[in-house]
Amino acid sequence: MKITIIAVGKLKEKYLKLGIQEYSKRLGAYATLDMIEVPDEKAPENMSEAEMVEVKRKEGEKILAKIGADSFVISLEINGDMLTSEDFAKKLDNLATHGKSKITLVIGGSLGLSQEVQKRSDYALSFSKMTFPHQLMRLILVEQIYRAFRINRGEPYHK
């Protein structure tokens, strides 16, 4: 399986980079992982609704340009489906069983995803109703993908 994570913004925090590197290395035994960063748009503090939509639209164009036509797209959205780790593992396993070997997971910027990206998405996933920094979500997502492969192989992994 080829997994691509597209994320808005540059990851700067060393501790997050180290965690992502560790789980990416572990994941290498199960799948190919590609991390793509697209630049975030400058967003002043007090934006109008129209300005927010425009920022998301511009970021969305960059995201869409990186998504392969044959990829199954999972967007991370606050209003998406919330799954247990076991259910997420089943989701990935079912995709592989049905010939979906290219999976793209999308993490938007601080304002979220554009409507165009949401329309291109095949499945909306939420990790929580809470808001997490989008940089931290990269680490959480890679860990959950790794956990899913361990679950699907019946291999032990701490709970």
Automatic annotation (TrEMBL):
Gene3D superfamilies per the UniProt record, alphabetical: 3.40.1280.10
Q: Which residues cross the membrane?
A: none
Instruction: Name the enzyme's class.
Output: transferase
Do the record's keywords include S-adenosyl-L-methionine? yes
Binding residue positions for S-adenosyl-L-methionine: L76, G108, F127, S128, K129, M130, T131, F132
A molecular function annotated in GO for this UniProt entry is:
methyltransferase activity
- According to its UniProt record, the EC number is 2.1.1.177
Catalytic activity entry: pseudouridine(1915) in 23S rRNA + S-adenosyl-L-methionine = N(3)-methylpseudouridine(1915) in 23S rRNA + S-adenosyl-L-homocysteine + H(+)
Keywords of the record, alphabetical order, are: Cytoplasm, Methyltransferase, rRNA processing, S-adenosyl-L-methionine, Transferase
Instruction: Indicate whether Magnesium appears among the record's keywords.
Output: no
GO biological process, alphabetically ordered: methylation
Q: Which domain of life is it from?
A: Bacteria
Subunit structure comment from the entry: Homodimer.
- What is the recorded function of this protein according to its Swiss-Prot or TrEMBL entry? Specifically methylates the pseudouridine at position 1915 (m3Psi1915) in 23S rRNA.
Alphabetized HAMAP family for the sequence: 23SrRNA_methyltr_H (MF_00658)
Entry protein name: Ribosomal RNA large subunit methyltransferase H
Biological source species: Aquibacillus rhizosphaerae
